[in-house]
Amino acid sequence: MLKNHRVLVEGKGSKRAVMCYELGIIYQEYSPENVLAVYSEIKKGWILRKQPRYKLGSWGRPSIGDSEGYALIQNARTLLRSIDASFYDLSHEEFLNQKEIDDHNKKIEAINKLTKNLKLADLDELDKVSREIKIREAYHSNKENKKGLDVFRSIDLIESIVNDFLQGTLKKEKSLLGYTIKKDSILRDKKILAIKKGSELIVNSEVLRPSSFETNFLGEQTIIQKMLVPKATINIPFNVLLAADLKLNETSVIDRGIEETFNISGKSRHFTGALLLENHGRKFLMDVDRIEITHGIFNAFFVEVNSQVKTISEAYESMKPEEVKKAESEGIEVLRQGEWFFIKTDKVITVNHSNFYRWLTDDTKKAIENKENLVLNSQISHGKGRPNTVYSVYLNGEKTDLVTYKVDHTGREHKTLFLDKRLSALDTYSHSQDKDLTFTSALYKVVPNTTVSNFQITGDVD
């Protein structure tokens, strides 16, 4: 969508089709004289050139037909479907004659109006001329013939209504594109999107599913969120409050981070910023896991922290156990995945195929009874978060709080954390050449963070 030029585009290079809705025309950007479709006032629908034949070649056989023309009509068809327009397919000859037919029909219509009261000669014969070229109805996104959605007029209209909402000049409730805009609130279906309390504008920054209109023309963010977020006094994902059963009118923002845009798997991901909230003396932190951002994972979290903290940085520091702070001050390696810290110890274990298992077997049970040293796959949980899979260490047949190898997280919220990548060779039993591999591996102590509680967010946040 090129808003400044008031046109919609689809495709690339010489196969790019351009729709000018106001003029009722779709043309090839590379050669504007190549008209692909026009809107017919007489037919109350778009007249689209029939797609030329094209067949992709196979091994030893070249492609045949008009590749560019085929793609252009396909792109024009996509544009028409995106605005929910009705259209007809015409052959090249029919397409060229359509304007002449429309002009002829307009003349007949005008003559009929003039002669209706004069009871002049019957005009059936003249009317037949307009039907000499048969129009073959093709795909319809809607059974009713129509021009489709005027995208730019709709955007202009909703921007005007939202500005009236912001300035307090909205006289009556308005509904448009799935939104209900009232004097003091905006709803999307039944979900509250924004609330205005005096000079304060509170915007719901959870990720809402865009309408087809927004998906086609505006990307991921809903149009009103895109307009309101920069003007909001407070941006807060309402689904976060719902996760902790907190009421909006009883919750205040103590500190907030800056608005950010991350690159996640080659795509821009907007984030309105971290929040430190207070509700009846309790403090809550909402943010995204910064370690996972470096791995291309957008993982938002919401936790209750120490009630004495006053800033976001203090909230983060309060989540670290004293044992972790001490290790960091002494220069000892500390790793983290989600709610768990892993402190490197001076203890080691020698592992090979005889004492490294992926699951508990009868042989393993006997090894524990015989007080052998083993590494066994197990799960750890903290609060309401999903469990993490670790490789727990058994020394002298007893399970310890020490782990090695790697840490996985169900739900794929976190990238796998390797404590010792070398042990991956022991993880595959099918390779006979690995059976003699033996490693002496450092052990890490597992320590949970000190959050009061954590909550699982339903949906996503912006």
Which structural traits does this protein have?
7-stranded mixed β-sheet; 4 domains; alpha+beta; 23% helix; 31 strands; 462 residues; 11 helices
Question: Could you please describe the fold and organization of this structure?
Answer:
The protein is an alpha+beta fold and 462 residues long. It folds into 4 domains: 8-140, no CATH class; 150-236, no CATH class; 243-319, no CATH class; 332-448, no CATH class. It contains 11 helices and 31 strands. Strand 13 and strand 14 form a beta hairpin. The longest helix is centred in the first third of the chain and has 24 residues, at 92-115. 28% of the residues are buried. The model is unreliable at 118-143 (pLDDT under 50).
- The whole-number mean of residue pLDDT values reads 79
- For the biggest β-sheet, the strand order reads 1-2-3-4-5-8-9
Number of strands: 31
Instruction: Give Rg in angstroms.
Output: 33 Å
Overall 3D geometry?
A: flat
* pLDDT < 50 runs, ≥5 residues: 118-143
Strand content: 25-35%
Helix content bin: 10-25%
Number of helices: 11
Overall tally of structural domains: 4
Sheet/helix structural class: alpha+beta
Oligomer: single chain
Largest sheet: 7 strands, mixed
The span between the termini is: 23 Å
